[in-house]
Amino acid sequence: AQSVAQPEDQVNVAEGNPLTVKCTYSVSGNPYLFWYVQYPNRGLQFLLKYITGDNLVKGSYGFEAEFNKSQTSFHLKKPSALVSDSALYFCAVRDVSGGSYIPTFGRGTSLIVHP
Amino acid sequence: DTGVSQNPRHKITKRGQNVTFRCDPISEHNRLYWYRQTLGQGPEFLTYFQNEAQLEKSRLLSDRFSAERPKGSFSTLEIQRTEQGDSAMYLCASTTDGGGAENGYTFGSGTRLTVV
Known about the structure:
The complex is a heterodimer. By secondary structure, chain A is mainly beta. Chain A contains no helices and twelve strands. In chain A, strands 2, 5, 6, 10, 11 and 12 form a six-stranded mixed beta sheet that branches. Chain A has a four-stranded antiparallel beta sheet with strand order 3-9-8-7, with no helix packed on it. Chain B has strands spanning 5-7, 10-13, 19-24, 31-37, 44-50, 53-57, 65-68, 75-79, 88-95, 106-107, 111-115. Chain B is mostly beta strands. In chain B, β4 and β5 form a beta hairpin. Helix content of chain B is 0%, strand content 48%. Classes of the chains: A mainly beta, B mainly beta.
């Protein structure tokens, strides 16, 4: 079975400050990990993924995420937040050896960046 | 190509009526997925197609739900005898990879269904 947890419903950060949105996962094999962003009344937009290789993954809009196998985490980060980063963020995981081709999404974290 | 297109954007229907949604994926994408999203939740998988073949269905997909992808292009999701619990955003996504979601999905803007 595969699962993903986003422990924070909401993250508040001031513009210009670094931001972190947390994600932990559970798989029986090796994970493929993803981050998506959703703006109001829109579909999800792909930000970045971890498949293999470097633990630090860089994605769209200046976001990056660090894969930590020992802590089973894949936290999303950005060095300097913008007000326009305010949105819903979803982490997703797929167990490569689990037999399914369908990622499981977390419940989402609302990021609010204050001017 | 303008991405994944979903129609209609909004649908209000009376309980017991049937509704049908359409998804037009990115033309070269061979895999197409349907998800359902309710307020405060992440997307929940419903079903997916590789070309015209429906390869996997979630247990969430009751007998009232049916999906098709004739000729491996656009897809339709039909809900028969709608219930208030069907109210949600229905998302369609497509991908071009050969297996799994390694390249990430491209999502449409969704169809918001309200059952009154």
